Amino acid sequence: MNRTFAAGVALTAASVLGYVVGVLAAYPGRAFALSGLMVGITVVAVSAGEGA
Fold first, then answer.
1. Considering 17, 24, 34, 47, which has the largest number of Cβ atoms within 10 A of its Cβ?
2. 5-46 pLDDT per residue, tens
3. C-alpha dihedral over 27, 32, 36, 37, to 10 degrees?
C-alpha cells in the first residue's frame, strides 16, 4: 500500500469522525473537519493511481 494513499485514508477517516463529533457537541476548530475531509479525499484521489 502506498504511504500517501494510507495517509489520505487516515485523514479522511479522522475528519469524518471529527465531523460526527462536531455535530453532537460543539468544540473549537470543528470546521477544520471539513477542510481535512476535502484534503484527505484529494490525497486519496491523487495517489490512487500509484498502486492503491
1. 47
2. 999 999 999 999 999 999 999 888 888 999 999 999 999 999
3. 70
Task: Read off the C-alpha cell for 33.
Answer: 473537519
Q: What is the chain written as a DSSP string? A: --HHHHHHHHHHHHHHHHHHHHHHS--TTTTHHHHHHHHHHHHHHHHGGGT-
pTM: 0.82
Cβ atoms of residues 52 and 2 within 8 Å:
yes
